[in-house]
C-alpha cells in the first residue's frame, strides 16, 4: 500500500510525485513506457512559458499576468476557464526555483526559437534533460518507479480511488494522481472523433503523432466508464504542421516547419487557404496542423524563396528545391498552371513596407483572399523551396474536468482522493489553440498542486483509518 499512486511518467506526473514525496507521502509511479522512452511528450519539449514582472535570470524584460492572459485568450478564442488559466499563469512565475532544486537547469534561448526570450524559459538540454533530472531526484527521494506498467483499470468506489491495475497486478493506494496524457496515439479514437469529411476521407488516417506512442487514452476511457466528469472537444488538440516525411511517432520539435509566416502555404489544389502572417509564429504554429487537417488529402505545401533562407529554424529534412517556380510545382506534383496563378496573384497583391520578422510589420497584401496580414513579400527570388506538411498531433484537449485543486469530479462532486494533471486535464485551460510553452506551464502547475493535494488526502484517509481501528 502506497500513500499516493501516480499514473504516468511525464512532466506533470513527476511534479506530482515529487511534491507528494516532499509532503511526506510514500509514492509509486506507474509509467507505461520502457525506461528508455520514459517521460511521455515532455521529453520532446524545450521550454516553459513564465509570467514575470521584471528581468529574471534567463528571461528578459517583463511578461505580466495580464499580457499572458490576453495571449492565452486570443489563441483559445475565449474557450478557457479563466480562473484555472490565471492560476496556471501565477504558478508559472514561482516554479523555477523548485525545478532547479530537482536538477533542472535553464539557458538563454538559442537563435531560431520563435522570438520568445521574453516569455519562455528554456531547459538546458531540452525536455529529455528535464525528465532525467526529475527521475534522478525521484530515485534519490525514494519514490518507487515501475516501467512497462500501463495502467488498464482503476478500482473506484463512490468516486474514491482504491487501487490501480496493470494486467493482473494490483497497486493499492490512499490517493492517486492521473498524469497519463491524452488519446492522440489511439488511431481509432482519433478516427471516431474526426469522422468522415464531405470528400469521403477519414482525416485522422493521415495524422502523424509528434510525441509518444504510449498516450492511448486508456485511463481516460476507464474514467469515462466510471462516470467521471469530462470537458473539451475531442477534435481539438495541439496540432502542428510538420514535415510529411516525419515518422509516425516521436518526431518531436525537429519535424516542425517554421517558415509558414515567411512565405505562402497552398493545398493539394495549389490554392492558398489561410492568412500565413496573421500573428507571431509562437501564437499560430499550433493552429496550422488543424488547418491542414481540413484540406484535401490532409496535406499542404509551405513555399518560400531565397530571401527567407536562414530566417527560421531549419527543419530536419531538406526542402524540395528548384530554380524556377514552375519547376518547383512540378516537383511537388502540383498543377503548374494553378500554382502559378496563385503565386502571381499573391505577388501582385503584396504592399511592401519595411520587412521585419521580429515585429508585426507593415508588409501586407491587398485585394486578395485570404489576405496575408504581415511579412508579405513577393516570392520571386530563386532558388525556391517547398515543404510538404501534414497534421502532427502533439496532444489532445478532451479530458477530465478539474478545479483549482486538480480534483477529479463525478457528477459534479469532487473525489476525496483522485486528482488529474497534465494533458489529461489541459483542456480546462486550452479549449483550442496554443501558444509556445504553455503546455509545460499547465502540467507543472497542476502537477505540483495535484501532488500536494494527493499527499494531504492520503494523510487524512490514513488518519481516519487509524482512528477507526483505535
Q: Residue share in helices?
A: 25-40%
Low-confidence stretches: none
Give the distance, in angstroms, between the N- and C-terminal Cα atoms.
Answer: 20 Å
Count of individual domains: 2
Q: From the alpha carbons, calculate the radius of gyration and give it in angstroms.
A: 23 Å
CATH superfamily of the largest domain: FAD/NAD(P)-binding domain
Q: What is the third-level CATH name, the topology of the largest domain?
A: FAD/NAD(P)-binding domain
Residue-averaged pLDDT, rounded? Answer: 95
Coarse shape: elongated
| Percent of residues in β-strands | 15-25%
CATH classification class of the largest domain: Alpha Beta
- Individual helix count: 12
Give the beta-strand count. Answer: 21
Organism: Zwartia hollandica
Pfam families: FAD_binding_2 (PF00890)
InterPro entries: CobZ, FAD-dep_OxRdtase_2_FAD-bd, FAD-oxidoreductase_2, FAD/NAD-bd_sf, Succ_DH/fumarate_Rdtase_cat_sf
GO molecular function: oxidoreductase activity
Short recap of the structure:
By secondary structure, the protein is α+β, with helices and mostly antiparallel strands. The chain has twelve helices and 21 strands. It folds into two domains: 2-182 and 217-232 and 398-469, FAD/NAD(P)-binding domain (3-Layer(bba) Sandwich); 237-392, Succinate dehydrogenase/fumarate reductase flavoprotein, catalytic domain (Flavocytochrome C3, Chain A, domain 1, Alpha-Beta Complex).
Task: Walk me through what this model shows.
The protein has 470 residues and is an alpha+beta fold. It folds into two domains: 2-182 and 217-232 and 398-469, FAD/NAD(P)-binding domain (3-Layer(bba) Sandwich); 237-392, Succinate dehydrogenase/fumarate reductase flavoprotein, catalytic domain (Flavocytochrome C3, Chain A, domain 1), CATH 3.90.700.10. It has twelve helices and 21 strands. It has helices at 11-22, 65-76, 82-92, 96-101, 126-140, 187-194, 218-225, 281-284, 288-293, 325-331, 336-349, 438-469; strands spanning 2-7, 27-30, 47-49, 106-107, 120-123, 144-146, 153-157, 160-166, 169-178, 208-209, 230-231, 237-243, 264-267, 300-305, 320-322, 350-351, 364-365, 384-396, 399-400, 407-410, 413-420. Strands 1, 2, 6, 7, 8, 9, 20 and 21 form an eight-stranded mixed sheet that branches. Strands 10, 12, 13, 14, 15 and 18 form a six-stranded mixed sheet that branches. It has a three-stranded antiparallel sheet with strand order 3-5-4. The longest helix has 32 residues, at 438-469. The radius of gyration is 23 Å and the shape is elongated.
Amino acid at each position: 500500500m502506497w500513500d499516493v499512486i501516480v499514473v504516468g511518467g511525464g512532466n506533470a506526473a513527476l511534479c506530482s510525485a515529487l511534491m507528494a514525496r516532499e509532503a511526506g507521502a510514500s509514492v509509486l509511479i506507474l509509467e507505461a513506457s520502457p525506461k528508455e522512452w520514459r517521460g511521455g511528450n515532455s521529453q520532446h519539449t524545450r521550454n516553459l512559458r513564465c509570467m514575470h514582472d521584471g528581468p529574471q535570470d534567463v528571461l528578459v524584460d517583463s511578461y505580466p499576468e495580464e499580457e499572458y492572459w490576453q495571449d492565452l485568450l486570443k489563441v483559445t478564442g475565449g474557450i478557457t476557464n479563466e480562473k484555472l488559466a490565471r492560476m496556471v499563469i501565477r504558478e508559472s512565475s514561482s516554479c523555477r526555483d523548485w525545478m532547479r532544486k530537482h536538477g533542472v537547469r535553464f539557458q538563454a534561448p538559442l537563435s531560431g526559437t520563435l522570438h520568445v526570450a521574453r516569455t519562455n524559459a528554456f531547459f538546458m538540454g531540452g525536455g529529455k534533460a528535464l525528465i532525467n533530472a526529475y527521475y534522478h531526484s525521484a530515485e534519490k527521494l525514494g519514490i518507487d518507479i515501475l516501467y512497462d506498467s500501463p495502467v488498464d483499470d482503476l478500482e473506484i468506489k463512490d468516486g474514491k480511488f482504491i487501487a490501480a491495475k496493470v494486467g493482473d497486478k494490483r497497486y493499492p493506494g490512499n490517493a492517486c494522481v492521473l498524469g497519463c496524457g491524452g488519446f492522440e496515439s489511439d488511431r481509432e479514437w482519433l478516427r471516431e472523433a474526426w469522422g468522415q469529411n464531405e470528400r469521403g476521407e477519414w482525416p485522422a488516417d493521415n495524422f502523424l503523432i509528434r510525441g509518444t506512442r504510449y498516450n492511448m487514452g486508456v485511463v481516460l476511457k476507464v474514467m469515462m466508464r466510471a462516470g467521471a466528469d469530462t470537458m473539451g472537444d475531442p477534435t481539438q488538440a495541439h496540432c502542428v504542421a510538420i514535415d510529411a516525411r516525419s515518422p509516425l511517432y516521436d518526431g518531436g520539435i525537429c519535424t516542425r516547419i517554421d517558415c509558414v509566416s515567411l512565405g505562402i502555404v497552398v493545398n493539394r489544389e495549389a490554392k492558398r487557404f489561410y492568412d500565413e502572417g496573421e500573428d507571431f509564429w509562437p501564437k499560430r504554429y499550433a493552429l496550422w496542423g488543424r488547418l491542414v487537417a481540413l484540406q484535401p488529402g490532409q496535406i499542404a505545401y509551405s513555399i518560400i524563396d531565397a530571401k527567407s533562407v536562414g530566417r527560421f529554424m531549419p527543419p530536419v529534412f531538406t526542402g524540395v528545391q528548384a530554380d524556377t517556380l514552375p519547376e518547383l510545382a512540378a516537383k511537388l506534383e502540383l498543377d503548374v498552371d494553378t500554382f502559378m496563378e496563385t503565386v502571381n496573384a499573391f505577388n501582385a497583391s503584396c504592399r511592401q513596407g519595411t520587412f521585419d520578422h521580429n515585429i508585426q510589420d507593415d508588409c501586407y497584401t491587398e485585394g486578395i483572399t485570404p489576405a496575408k496580414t504581415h511579412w508579405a513579400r513577393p516570392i520571386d527570388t530563386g532558388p525556391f523551396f517547398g515543404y510538404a506538411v501534414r497534421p502532427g498531433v502533439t496532444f489532445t484537449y478532451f479530458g477530465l474536468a478539474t478545479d483549482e485543486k486538480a480534483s477529479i469530479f463525478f457528477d459534479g462532486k469532487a473525489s476525496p482522493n483522485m486528482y488529474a494533471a497534465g494533458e489529461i486535464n489541459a483542456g480546462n485551460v486550452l479549449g483550442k489553440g496554443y501558444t509556445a510553452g504553455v503546455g509545460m506551464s499547465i502540467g507543472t502547475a497542476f502537477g505540483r498542486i495535484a501532488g500536494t493535494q494527493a499527499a494531504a488526502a492520503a494523510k487524512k484517509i490514513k488518519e481516519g483509518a487509524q482512528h477507526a481501528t483505535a
